[in-house]
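Curious: why these numbers?
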Amino acid sequence: MGQTPETRFTLGATARVELTVTDSDTAQAVGSGDVPVLGTPRLLALAEAATVAATAAALPTGMTTVGTRVELDHRAPTPVGRAVAAMARLAEVDGRRLVFDVVVTEGGTTVAQGRIERMLVDRHRFVERAFDRTPTPRSGDDPTGGRAL
């Protein structure tokens, strides 16, 4: 009996991704604030890169994962020149849904921690659907393109 794509993933699989913070990684540069420290969007991208790396070797041919949910607490600032490391651990596999615990550290300090969920998808179909989709207005949408809250 062959493995399904979902059973190829090992609970507890980990990956670590490192970054030395540069001016282009700061909140000022990415538009998330006006301080010269690691911006939360860049921190999140680093954590997501660790989740991708944790399952890359187990991905079936033609498949990829896409981010679907993030819970991330950014707890401490990291100035330019300092190195941070993001560690992701596969904590749960529920069908095509993969849940990772993530921790970002600078030395012995926890800079951020949280959970990131990714979904296993067929790469070709996902991209095809993204580009073939014609946006349809929903009730309450602003005609200028804004969404009703």
Remarks:
- The chain has a mean pLDDT of 91.
